[in-house]
Model the fold of this input.
Amino acid sequence: MDNIFDWNWKITDEQKIIEGLHCTKATSDFLGSNFEVWFANDIPMSSGPEFYHGLPGLITQASNSVFEYKITSIEYPENLPEIERPVLKSDKSVSFLEAQNNLLNPAGSSSLKWFPIDEATTIESSIMTRIKKN
Done:
């Protein structure tokens, strides 16, 4: 998954307990704001509230000068559902450009003739070109 934000987190040595979880503090100066988060190393999930991510554990608290998010409880379900691994229809891998072309030029779409995308063309510019032609 592409990351929209590059938080450039600085992990500190500060520790505290949040809802029974041992958490570590990390900070970031991002887009002119100072952010402080606490993450739980024991839950190796690089996620958190809203758009916070990029640390080696679940973000349990996040704040800046305007707001604060804080985990208030954690529930562990007794019976977790079994999730089967999906079976791929093909072992073939494709480049990003091939994937874009497959998406914009689907097989069997002879009524729509979309031109192929190359490295100098973005999805946005190709769509805008198609809109202008119509």
